[in-house]
Amino acid sequence: EAGVVQSPRYKIIEKKQPVAFWCNPISGHNTLYWYRQNLGQGPELLIRYENEEAVDDSQLPKDRFSAERLKGVDSTLKIQPAELGDSAVYLCASSPNRFGGRGYNEQFFGPGTRLTVL
Amino acid sequence: RKEVEQDPGPFNVPEGATVAFNCTYSNSASQSFFWYRQDCRKEPKLLMSVYSSGNEDGRFTAQLNRASQYISLLIRDSKLSDSATYLCVVKTGTASKLTFGTGTRLQVTL
Question: Is B21:B86 a contact under the CB 8 Å cutoff?
Answer without folding.
Answer: yes
